[in-house]
Amino acid sequence: MIVLKTFPKGGVHPAENKLSKGKKIEKLNMPETVTIPISQHIGAPAVPVVNKGDIVKIGQLIAKSGGFVSANIHSSVSGKVLKIEPSMDASGYKRMSIIIKVEGEEYEPDIDLSDTLVKECSLNADEIKKRIADKGIVGLGGATFPTHVKLSVPPGKTAEHLVINAVECEPYLTADHQLMMEKPDEILVGCSIMAKAIGVNKVLIGIENNKPDAIKLFKEKAVSFNNIEIYALKVKYPQGGEKQLIKALINREVPSGGLPIDVGCVVQNVGTAFAVYEAVQKNKPLYERVVTVTGKNVKNPVNLLAKVGTPISELIELAGGLPEDTGKIVNGGPMMGKAVNNQQIPVTKGTSGILLFPNKLAKRPKVYNCIRCSRCTHVCPMNLEPHLLKNLSNKALWEELEKERVLDCIECGSCSYTCPAGIPLLDYIRLGKANLNRIIRSRK
Amino acid sequence: MANNRLLVSMSPHDHGKDNVKKIMYGVVLAMMPAFLVSVYYFGLDAIRVNLIAIAACVFFEWFIQKVFFKGKPTITDGSAIVTGMLLAFNVPTNLPWWILVIGALVAIGIGKMSFGGLGNNPFNPALVGRVFLLISWPVQMTSYPKIQVLNFAITDAETGATPLALVKEGLKNGEPFSQIIESMPTSYTDMLIGQMGGSLGEISALALIIGGLYMLIRKIITWHVPVAVLASIAIFTGILYGINPEAYADPAFHLLTGGVMLGAIFMATDMVTSPMTGKGMLIYGVGIGVITVLIRVWGAYPEGVSFAILIMNAFVPLINKATKPKRFGETIKKQ
User: Fold this and answer.
1) B7 contact A CB<8A
2) What confidence category does residue B301 fall into, taking pLDDT thresholds of 50, 70 and 90?
């Protein structure tokens, strides 16, 4: 038996519940209005370049990147700009958004809407990065970090590997998996374009072993690319964390406080690879993405191609409507997603799934005293001691937290997930991180 | 609108489903084989002692929680039941009921609740109770009834010395180990299945190992502590036996008699009072093994497991400090 690669320490294996597995990606009907937040990425918000009353086309730039770490935003529909005002997004805060009333279906003329595979890319590295920036591509794994920034290797560092995260370790979600099954060639072309942009000739794609069909398909397809290697990984959460993925694939440890480039790696999500393909080869901005809509009581769990700005209620409708006893709606996966309090939240570039929990599963477990079982320590993929961090945070000993490297925490939630005393360890750790970050900022 | 009832909480939104209650009742279940063996050899007395100890422990926890802490009752979490059963397992079955009740009061009151209840106690509560009784009533705590298979008549059973005490006494009088063993009615097989005198729950190594395997499979315990305790006892006594087989008992004898199995599998593995990391658990386990042998071979008592565990309990905070897990990315210096 082949021993599958994985990261050595920590991790959990929650029930996979991939209910929408194998469901063909369906295209959502054109919504009536869309609400497009100008801040859908990490970094500075974009700056609107349209005004109330303007007529826009699908793919038209409506908000311009607001800095180096920022991203362009394009309209996902054609129609009229109704208003530009704050509207609640998945974070629970009101954020400036461009609200567009849909009229017709008119595309920017330079977008190639055909299905023909374009393999050759004649652009050079800088042109590729510029195109990716122009088309507003951000990391689609959830963190939504602007892709062109990640592909710009800082001076003094060299990239050796492009690591593609095709792990999809979050339970329930199948968006990446389904995309891989339907668009393997496009994804592989996207990977080689990114490899060219950062100047590496080695691409490693990590796929968890619960997707044998995708592993097989990619191994077959990758043969025609001489620089792409496919690795089957043992199923373990949070393998999609970039530090864990690098450790699993090439056994290098990103230093504490460092970035993947410190060990010669750039990590990109498989969905991002597809978006890069579309941007570079088809001139298509990032205005729609694949979203899994799922849950234990959902009638028809689906994978949908949804336009950015569509209220999630329309996605839920296509999945058979909101189940009677829904107690929680999560934007994202069950381990790292954000709970939202209404169905008008728009789909954004970072929305990988809409998860509907019945009341019974929505509640948090009963809390007991800590029994020092140390399971949190054993499952922490960063080898931290969550029980200790919780206690320090509870006592407001923020500086002590720094010594215990609380900022290394990737907020994967394995500790809270596993705690038999039901203690929300990660809540305390987040509190500690926020306060410590405040202190660190004030030092400058 | 149904939306008003949507719960908003921070991630993760899924939970591993294991909880303190399940763990505690899992331990109770794991103690069942040893309990059944005790009923087989000690009759109704085994049931009597368990019931009194459990009832007293649960009562004292409820009482202290209600009267002193004025908090919600915590007795349903099952931890008081575990303490009660472990206390019962650690005493002779002919122990007068009032001594047992005092033991329960010390175990729960001093051993556990005085530190703030579940999870806050540095020492294993059942052992605190047991050692208190051993020091206060040494005669009653060390007169073990002779075993009688399935005897449910309530009689004043005869008492007799345990193999461990016989060997200690014999070796002290200069008799060679091989002779003592030969003259003993208990064979090693008897010791394995539990056909010998001793505390209620400690007699059958086999039943305790079955319980331990169950806890391993259920992931209530890890292998580190039991293996470290048993291996260090085997190695230490093996060396002594190798030096002089007539002056020291052999490793198998040490492993099969007294409270070693009960201690290694059920008492030393208590989550609350044992270290947090695998490495720490190994250090702690070896400490218990070494101190046990030191007491057994050169100490005043024939048995030393309880003391060894309590002593090592005291070192747990230090061990935890010394064996912090190596952080991810710690060794590589940032460029």
Assistant:
1) yes
2) confident
Task: Decide if B118 and A342 are in contact by the 8 Å CB cutoff.
Answer: no
List B residues 105-134 in contact with A (Cβ-Cβ < 8 A).
117-120
Return d(Cα A424, Cα B7) in angstroms, integer. 15
Rounded to two decimals, the pTM is: 0.91
pLDDT of residue B334: 44
Instruction: Report angle CA A230, A231, A233 to the nearest 5 degrees.
Output: 150
- Residue A410: partners with Cβ closer than 8 Å, 6 or more residues away: A238, A241, A243, A381, A382
Instruction: State the alpha helices, DSSP H only, in A283-323.
Output: 312-318
Q: pLDDT value at position B157? A: 63
Model confidence over A222-269: pLDDT tens digits?
A: 999 989 999 999 999 999 999 999 999 999 999 998 999 999 999 999
Average confidence score pLDDT of chain B: 91
Of A12, A256, A426, the CB nearest to B16: A12
Cβ contacts (< 8 Å) between B119 and chain A: which residues? 368-372, 421
Of the partner residues B6, B14, B329, the one whose CB lies closest to the CB of residue A253: B329
CA distance A207 to A218: 9
pLDDT of residue B153: 61
Q: Residue A420 and residue B324: Cβ atoms within 8 Å?
A: no
What pLDDT, in 10s, does the model give residues B100-123? 999 999 999 999 999 999 999 999
Containing structural domain, residue B28: 20-142
Closest CA–CA distance from residue B8 to any residue of chain A (Å): 5
Residues 6 or more apart whose Cβ sits within 8 Å of residue A176: A166, A168, A269, A270, A271, A290, A352
Q: Are A6 and A283 in contact (CB under 8 A)?
A: no
Given the structure tokens 């849909």, which residue do they identify?
A102
Q: pLDDT of A114-133, one tens digit each?
A: 999 999 899 999 999 999 99
Tokens 């961090």 map to which residue? Answer: A389
3-state SS assignment for residue B216: helix
Judge if B280 and B195 occupy the same domain.
yes
Residues B170 and B256 in one domain: yes
pLDDT bucket at B332, cuts 50 / 70 / 90: low
Which ipTM did the prediction report?
0.89
> How far is it, in rounded angstroms, from Cα A75 to Cα A54?
12
Whether residue B9 lies within 8 A of chain A, CB to CB, comes out as yes
Please tell me the total count of domains within chain B: 2
- Contact A382/B276, CB-based, under 8 Å? no
What's the length of chain B? 335
Residues B125 and B217 in one domain: no
Is B335 within 8 Å of chain A by CB?
A: yes
At residue B1, the pLDDT reads 43
**Type and span of the H or E element at A320:** none
Instruction: Tell me which architecture the domain covering A1-8+17-28+106-360 has in CATH.
Output: 3-Layer(aba) Sandwich (3.40)
State how far Cα A113 lies from the chain centre. Answer: 25
Q: B172 — contact with chain A (CB < 8 Å)?
A: no
For chain B, first and last CA: distance in Å? 55
Residue of B nearest to A251 (CA): B329
Residues B173-209 pLDDT 10s: 889 999 998 888 888 998 999 888 899 999 999 999 9
